[in-house]
């Protein structure tokens, strides 16, 4: 899939799912999750929405004529997937009494990919100055 299309489609999918999962968390999970789990779930939704918006904005603003642009988009797409969805899995599995512990290390890997994406984006802004 072309990188610009990947950014647009995944930005739209992540935005759509953030709204659905946010409403699901606020209503259906309110009585099922602890306050700490609910807060974690909300953090996943927020980061997902932030990066959904970012992907859509970048899809209209990056030139996509350099490999760096592809690395930036891939870092945000896969970082969001690993970060937010591992949090959802941890919260929902814990609420059902069968916490999927293997997801614990996935969350920081996703977070690291998000950091890499932001660092690469920053680099793309300042590199032309040198």
Automatic annotation (TrEMBL):
UniProt KW keywords: Membrane, Transmembrane, Transmembrane helix
Membrane topology note: Multi-pass membrane protein
Statement: the UniProt record of this protein carries the keyword Transmembrane helix: yes
Residue spans crossing the bilayer: 6-26, 47-64, 76-95, 102-126
Compartments it resides in: Membrane
InterPro entries named in the record: DUF423
Entry's Gene Ontology cellular component terms: membrane
Family: Belongs to the UPF0382 family.
PANTHER family: TRANSMEMBRANE PROTEIN 256 (PTHR43461)
Record-given protein name: DUF423 domain-containing protein
The species this protein was found in: Flagellimonas hymeniacidonis
């Amino acid at each position: 899939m072309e990188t610009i299309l990947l950014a647009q489609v995944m930005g739209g999918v992540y935005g759509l799912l953030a709204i659905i999962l946010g409403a699901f968390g606020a209503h259906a999970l309110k009585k099922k999750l602890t306050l700490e789990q609910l807060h974690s779930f909300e953090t996943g939704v927020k980061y997902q929405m932030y990066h959904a918006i970012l992907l859509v904005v970048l899809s209209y603003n990056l030139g996509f004529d350099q490999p760096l642009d592809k690395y930036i988009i891939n870092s945000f797409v896969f970082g969001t997937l690993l970060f937010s969805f591992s949090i959802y899995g941890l919260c929902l599995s814990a609420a059902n009494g069968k916490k999927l512990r293997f997801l614990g290390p996935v969350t920081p890997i996703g977070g690291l990919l998000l950091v890499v994406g932001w660092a690469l984006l920053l680099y793309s802004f300042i590199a032309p100055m040198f």
